[in-house]
Structure formats: structure tokens, C-alpha cells
Amino acid sequence: PPDYVDLFTVTTSGAAGWSPEQWARAGFEDAAGLRGQFVWRVLVGLRLEHRPSLDRVAGWRIADRGHDWVRLDAASRFLTAQVVFHVDGEQLSVATFIRYDRPTAAVLWPPLSAGHRRAVPGLLRHAVRALSTRSSVARPPARRRPARQGMRPSQ
After folding, report:
1. pLDDT by residue (tens digit) across 79-108?
2. CB 3.0 to 4.6 Å from 105: which of 79, 86, 92, 112, for a disulfide?
């Protein structure tokens, strides 16, 4: 069982228009970018692939997927992380699961998790803006619907 779990959900009219993998790429590659790579690789010590690949998102391995979800995973010397992106109608949910593989993780992850919980809502807002912009370029203006940006941490 995981030692840490969180879940964030954003409501946007465009959620179902993009696949879970596209949402994951918008969040991890576009929104998190180099800052995310620094946190994941240096602070958390995740072993992420350096080369772009169709079976990876920002270096995270695509471990499994369904039509409305994708699960990414990565590991460090002391923990294993999994992130699930799930699309359901107008909602995009992102869940993080951390398993402590060594006692060090129980000391290092709790302070890092505070930053993680502060960062994820902004990452989701950025992903919504990025994909909304892409869809507005792809669609005629008369058909465009504004994205709703309601955000709440899920309990």
C-alpha cells in the first residue's frame, strides 16, 4: 500500500477533448518543465529517462493506461512514485501515490510533499491554459467555449 496519496481535480469544459496522455504531457512536459525536472531528478532523486520517447512522459514511464486514464511511474533509491491522470467528463483528476522503499523516504518526502501540494494546482491550471490555447487555434472562434477554472483538492 502507498505511504502517501493525494488527489487534485480541476473542472474545465475541455477536459474530455484531450486524452489522459495529452493531459499528462501538458502537465509534466509543458507546465512542470525544467523546474519539475530539477525537483524530480535532484530533490526526489527519481531515475527518469533523458531521451524523449512515446512510452515516457517527461522521463516518467507510462506504466499502464485505459481510455480515460494513464499511470506514470518512476523510482529513486528510496521511494517509488506513481501519478495517475484521469479524465471524466469535464473533470481532470491527478492522483499521486508514493511508496517508501527505504526509511530515508519517511524523512525526506514529508517536507517535499508540502511543496508538491502547493505546485500541483498551478501545474493543472497551466495545463488547462495550454490545451485550451491549442484547442482555440484548432477550432473556429464561433465554436470555442471558455474553459471553467474551478479547482479543488479532492478529499
Report:
1. 999 999 999 999 999 999 999 999 999 999
2. 79
